[in-house]
Amino acid sequence: MKTITINTDTTFKYLQVFNGILELTQKELAVLAEFIDTGDHNDLCDIETKKIVAERVGLEDFNTLNNYIKRLKDKGAIGKKGSKYYPTPFLVPKSKITIQINHA
């Protein structure tokens, strides 16, 4: 068994650790990081949050984020319950990441 500890200083860098699994584009990573940093984790994609995220990632129209939200949902980075979106729990940054690798 091997244990690896990874320290990250931004949500974007934290998400990059898992990108081999999620296969997000750099823009999708940036959008997801902004949603996690900005939004309410019980309703990640409300209109006010979308306006802030759009501005931070350089999109003129916040409605363009609907395309990213669909892709993030399809790739398993966010979930939906009713009309509310939430981040996949392991993608919410913690102060420490420990990855345990077992190889038979």
Number of strands: 4
Gyration radius over CA: 14 Å
What is the top-level CATH class?
A: Mainly Alpha
Overall average residue pLDDT: 88
* Overall structural domain count: 1
- For the termini, the CA-CA separation is 9 Å
Could you tell me the CATH topology label: Arc Repressor Mutant, subunit A
Low confidence ranges: none
What is the helix/strand order? Answer: EHHHHHEEE
Beta-sheet strand percentage? 15-25%
Largest sheet: 2 strands, antiparallel
Q: Name the helicity range.
A: 40-55%
Q: What general outline do the C-alpha atoms trace?
A: elongated
Strand order of the largest sheet: 1-4
* Tally of helical runs: 5
Give the CATH architecture: Orthogonal Bundle
Oligomer: single chain
Q: Given the helix and strand composition, which structural class is it? A: alpha+beta
Q: What does this molecule look like?
A:
This protein has 104 residues and is an alpha+beta fold. The chain has a single domain, classed as Orthogonal Bundle (Arc Repressor Mutant, subunit A), CATH 1.10.10. It contains five helices and four strands. The strands form two sheets. It has a two-stranded antiparallel ribbon with strand order 1-4. The protein has a two-stranded antiparallel ribbon with strand order 2-3. A hairpin with a 2-residue loop joins strand 2 and strand 3. Helix 3 packs across helix 4. The protein is elongated.
